[in-house]
Amino acid sequence: MGKPQVAFFDFAGCEGDQLQVINLEEDLLQVLEAVDIVSFREALKGHAETYDIAFVEGSITRRSDEARLREIRRNAGVLVAFGSCATNGGINMLKNFQEQENVRRFVYGEQFFHYETYPARPLKAVVAVDVEIHGCPVNRREFQAVLASLLAGKKPNVPNYPVCVECKMAENICVFELGMTCMGPVTRAGCEACCVTAGSFCWGCRGLVDDPNADAQREILARNGLTLPDILKRFRLYTGFSEVSK
Amino acid sequence: MNATTSIRIHHLTRVEGHGSVDIQIRDGTVERCQWQVVEAPRFFEAMLRGRKWFEVAHVTSRICGICSIGHTLASLKATEAAMGIRVSAQVVDLRKLLLHAENVQSHVLHLGYLVLPDLFKVPSVISLAATHTEQVLLAIRIHRLANEMSELIGGRTTHPQSAVVGGFARWPARADLANLRSRLEAALPEGIALAQFIREHSANVPAFERETEYIALSDPNEYALYDGRIASTDGGTFPVDQYRQVCNEYCVPQSTAKFARHRRDSYMVGALARVNLNHHHLGPAARKVAEMFGLRPVSHSPFMNNAAQAVELVHSLEDAIRRIDDLLTHDFKPEKASFAIAAGRAAGAVEVPRGILFHEYEYNKSGECVWANCVIPTNQNHANIQKDMEALVGRFKDRPGDEIEFMVEMLVRAYDPCISCSTH
User: Fold this and answer.
1) A39 touches chain B (CB under 8 A)
2) Is residue B197 part of a domain?
3) Residue B39: inside a domain, yes or no?
4) Cβ atoms of residues A108 and B42 within 8 Å
5) pTM
6) Distance CA B315, CA A13 (A)
7) Which residues in chain B are contacts of A197 at CB distance < 8 A?
8) ipTM (interface pTM)
9) Looking at residue B359, which CATH number applies to its domain?
10) How many contiguous H segments (helices) and E segments (strands) does chain A have?
C-alpha cells in the first residue's frame, strides 16, 4: 500500500498558509517520508485525480469558483480548511460590509463589469469541511500536529479556549496593562499568542472561540476608550462571517 | 516546417497564484498567444476604506504571503509620509535588515524550490531531495536563516508584527543581532555555493533576449531597496509621488490583475531591473557572482532574472552583515516612537523581491484611511511577460509543442510572478 496522498489547493488568499508548509524547512522532508504530496501548484508540477487529505487555503469570492471547490470535496477523503481565509473568511470579509458594485468600481473603474465577485465566504459556506486549521497564517506546529492526527486516524484537537491562556503561558504582560486593546479574550487560541509576544496585540485572526463572552469583550473595549463603531470594526476585521451567519 | 500546435496551460505550476497560457500555432503562424491572470480579486484598496492608521499595514500585509514584509514596509512608509512622521536612523537600518531577510527568503524559495527543478527537468524539489540532497539541504539552511532573521526583527516570518508606524513595537537585543551576524557570515559562502550550483546547471536556459525598459528604485549612495527615486534604463528619474505617471495601469479582460506601461508597450521590474540599474552599488561578493553568470548591465534576457536573484541573495547576505556592524558600533537601543495623527496623502515605495512596490493612502484627520492605491511588482510585469511570450513563441514556433510549452513555463517562472499579489 502506498503512502497517504495529500493535496494543497487555494482560492482567494495570499498563499501564506501553504508557505508555512515550505517554512517547515528540514521537517518538510520528514513530512514527505510520511505522505505523497500529489498536488501543490505553488511548489510542484503534476496533479492527481483523488487524494486522501486536501488542505484548502483561501476564501470563496466568486460563484464560478464554487464548482472547483465542490470537485475538490468530491475527490478528497478529508477536507481541511487551511488558514483564516478558509475557516472564517479572513481579511477578505472586509469587503462584505460595503456595497459590492461600489467595491468593484472603486478598484477597476469603468471596466468593473469584467471582474466577477460576490461577498467573501469561508469554505464551509459552500461545502462540508472536516477539519479547520485557523490562523493568518497557520501555525506550522499546529499543521504538523493536525497532519499527524489525521494520519493516525484520530480527530485533531482544535483549541477551544481564548488566546489569553497561551499569552499567560508565554509570560507576556497583558496589552490592556500597556494601554492597548486586544481581541485575545474572545479569540480561539493555537497561535501561542505570537502577535502579543512580537510587541503587538491580538487581532482576532483565528476567529471566535465557541460561546465567546462577547458582551464582556465589548465592555472591556469600551472601558478602554473604543467607541461602538470602533468596537464593531475591531470585531469585523476577522470575525465578520460569524456575525452574518447568525 | 509549417507546424500546428495548440498549448493550453491551465493554472501554471511552481508560481504563486493562478495564471494560464493559451497558445495556438497554425501552419507556422502564431494565431494566439496569451498570458491570462485568472486569480480571484480581493479588492484590497476598497477594503482599506474606513480602517484606522494602525490597521492599514496589518491589512495590506495580507496582499501577499511571500512578500508580506515588503507590503508592511511600503505601507508604513506611505502612512508615515502622509502624516509627516519621521523615523530614526536605527529604525531605517532595522527595516533594511528586514528587507534583506525577505529578499533572501524569497529568492532562495524561487531559485531552490521553483527554478532548480526546471534546470534538472524534474517535476519538483522533492525529486531533487533524493538526487542532490546536499544542495537541497543547503538551500533549506539559507531559507531557514532568512526566516529566523525575519522572526527576530519582524516578530514573525510571515505577516510581521513588530514593524509599526513610527518604528518598532519590539526590538531585537544587541546579543541577538551579534549572533545573527555570525550566522550570516557562515551563510555567505553557502549562498555563493548555491549560486555556483545554479550556474553550473543552467545549460538548458533558452538563449533569448528582447529589448525592454527596466524600472527600479535608485539611490546615489547604495543598492536601493528601502529608499530612492524611481529610475528607468530608458533614462531619467522620478520622485516616488509621481509613480502613477510611471505605472499607467490599465485593465485587460483576460486578467484580473491590471497591466502597466511607461514609455514602451511594457516594462520589467524585479531583481534584473535592479541589477541593470544599480549594478555599481552591489557588494564585492555579489559582483563576483554577477561576473560568474556573465550578467552585465543592461541585460535584456528575462531568464537572467534568475541570475540576478542569485546575485542579490549574496548581496543581501553581505550587506546585512555590514549593516549589523553599523548598528552595533553605534549606540543601538530600543526607542519609543512619538508622533501625532494627521490628515494627509502620500505614496511610499520599496523594492521587494519581485520589484518596485507602491502604496498610496489618504487619511482624514482622525487617522482613518479614506482612499488607497497599491501597485504591485508583478502587476507591472504582466505586460512584459505577454510581450516576451509573443517574441519567444514567435522565435521558436517550429519546435515541438512540448518544447515550446516547457520554454514558456520557464519564461513565466523566471519572472517569479506573485500572481495573487498582483491581483490583490
Assistant:
1) no
2) yes
3) no
4) no
5) 0.97
6) 31
7) 155
8) 0.96
9) 1.10.645.10
10) 10, 5
